[in-house]
Specification:
Layout lengths: L3 H11 L4 H8 L3 H8 L10 H8 L3 H4 L4 H16 L5 H14 L4 H14 L5 H21 L3 H18 L3 H8 L7 H8 L7 H22 L5 H19 L7 H17 L3 H19 L4 E3 L12 E3 L1 H15 L11 H11 L16
Antiparallel strand pairs: 1-2
Helix pairs in contact: 2-3, 6-7, 7-8, 8-9, 9-10, 10-11, 11-12, 12-13, 13-14, 13-15, 14-15, 15-16
Length: 367
């Protein structure tokens, strides 16, 4: 185990401080610091806490106790506090005792804040406010000092919840929400929950758009036990997209076209040919709509979360649209309608779209 003098020297050099600079911070002489590091004498007990605070470590680190032992203590405390037989008040007292030993550990601060939330009883208004204010105080300390991105993200979310839904402090709720980054789901979700915020509806819509597309894609990609369940899922996905984008397919058309191909296969499988032709027509109309959008790269300009390019709208992409549907309706699942005049007319209409001749034929394609 290293000595306190060795640790002071190591911590000082890591922070690129001279003995004179350290002495000035502690309001002592440089000779005193030199004697500590030479192990001629040790710091007075009253200087341990200021030293630890200055270096941003616990007193145990100054005395050479391994960080592993601190992590072990935190984990043991967490297990004790999470046990069913441990009351919230006992857990808070236990965390506070550990905090006395490690006053600059942000993970302990986070647990204390969380436990204060658990202790807050809605039945006692004063107690409820007091515990939530203490929780906010500890969460704020984490934000002030922690560089751990994951911990900061969880702290921002928890702190916004306290300000917006427990203390009804809209000013601080908005401040915390705007600390969530330039763009991101965390910031948007927090802003959408902030009562009285003038752009509340806008941010609710952004969250809905972000998750709406995600839900639609998830339904398209899931495996289902039978075709009827697939149809129900895909029809639900279409309703989600319709509600999310309010019928504006300009930024989401490629998702609709993918969905329509899946639905067409399902409808022909259950011999619902009327619905099959209906969704094939929807695909065709969506493809033409996309092909007529202005040239250039189109992004999710109405959704701040989505920055990937949706498509390069040029002749090559119209080839892709045309060939994509021809590939899928070449699947053997459409063999039952292949000789129908209506189906042949549809193929001719698609072939008339801009693009090269496609070697159309019966090919199996996976969903």
């Amino acid at each position: 185990m290293t000595t306190i003098g060795q640790n002071i020297r190591k911590l000082r050099k890591e922070r690129q401080m001279t003995q004179e600079e350290l002495a000035a911070q502690l309001n002592i002489s440089a000779q005193a610091v030199s004697k500590w590091e030479m192990e001629t004498c040790s710091p007075d007990i009253s200087q341990i806490v200021p030293l630890a605070a200055l270096f941003g470590v616990s007193a145990d680190v100054l005395f050479g106790i391994s960080p592993d032992s601190m992590e072990k203590e935190i984990e043991e405390t967490r297990k004790y506090c999470d046990a069913l037989e441990t009351s919230n008040e006992d857990a808070l007292e236990t965390w506070m005792k550990l905090y006395e030993r490690y006053p600059h550990n942000n993970f302990i601060r986070f647990e204390i804040a969380k436990t204060h939330e658990y202790c807050a009883s809605p039945d006692d208004k004063e107690d409820y406010i007091r515990h939530n204010q203490k929780a906010a105080e500890f969460y704020e300390k984490v934000l002030d000092e922690s560089a751990d991105n994951d911990l900061r993200s969880k702290t921002l979310e928890a702190l916004h919840h306290i300000y917006s839904e427990r203390l009804f402090d809209s000013e601080n709720a908005l401040r915390i929400a705007n600390m969530g980054g330039d763009w991101g789901t965390l910031k948007a979700e927090m802003l959408s929950k902030t009562d009285g915020y003038e752009k509340k509806n806008y941010w609710c819509q952004q969250v809905f758009q972000y998750y709406g597309e995600g839900m639609a894609w998830a339904l398209v990609r899931m495996r289902f036990p039978d075709t009827q369940t697939k149809i129900f899922a895909y029809e639900t996905a279409e309703k989600i997209l319709d509600l999310t984008y309010l019928g504006d397919k300009a930024w989401i058309s490629y998702v609709y076209m993918n969905l329509y191909t899946h639905l067409a296969k399902c409808y022909v499988t259950v011999e619902n040919y009327e619905k099959m032709y209906e969704v094939l027509e929807k695909w065709y109309e969506t493809a033409l709509f996309e092909d007529n959008l202005p040239l250039g790269e189109h992004r999710y300009e109405n959704n701040p979360f989505m920055t990937e390019i949706v498509y390069n709208h040029d002749l090559a992409y119209t080839h892709h649209n045309r060939d994509y549907i021809l590939c899928h309706i070449g699947d053997h699942v459409f063999d039952s309608v292949r000789d129908c005049e209506k189906f042949k007319a549809y193929i001719e209409k698609v072939n008339a779209m801009p693009g090269i001749e496609y070697p159309f034929g019966g090919v199996d394609f996976e969903d």
